Amino acid sequence: MRTFSLLKGMPVYDRRGEMLGEVCDICIVEEGMVTDLLLQMKGFMGKKMRVPVQSVSSFGEDGIIVDGSGNYSKYQELDDEYTMHHGRSIAKKNTMTPQGEQLGLLDDVYFLEKEGTIVGYELTDGFFSDITEGKRVIRTLVPPNIGKDAIIVSAINQRGGHIHDEMSELSKQGPW
């Protein structure tokens, strides 16, 4: 399981060891799936390219290796997808339950590397609240409803909100 914040800025290499660029964002479809990594390509022009999650051979601690199939395409904003920070951004978007309970602002997503399925959301109530109470992590198996003003998620379990909670414990809880 990965989070966007752990991938951001991570170098991406092809199988020959050539660095393609660094992860600058992820592309998310309405079904709650991460479909592509968005790379800031190296070089003077620094174009943004899409690399399908299925093209990733391995997610390492220090870098990402892609299969070298050349499945990459120039980034263009699509009507049916979102990103964390580019195009149709969902970062810092209000997150609510279907019952109308405000959960916080979206800060990060947890997803399964191989499938791209989003299984959790990290939420913030603001800088000072994060320091005093910690960030909250909710997990879900149901795709969110991403609207213009809010994201509606069905929360199975909430974690966090306390300084002693560890985000790493999320991956040890329950089947993902």
UniProtKB/TrEMBL annotation:
Pfam family name, one: PRC
InterPro entries: PRC-brl_dom (IPR027275), PRC_barrel-like_sf (IPR011033)
Top-level lineage group: Bacteria
PRC-barrel domain: residues covered: 4-68, 96-156
Protein name per its UniProtKB record: Photosystem reaction center subunit H
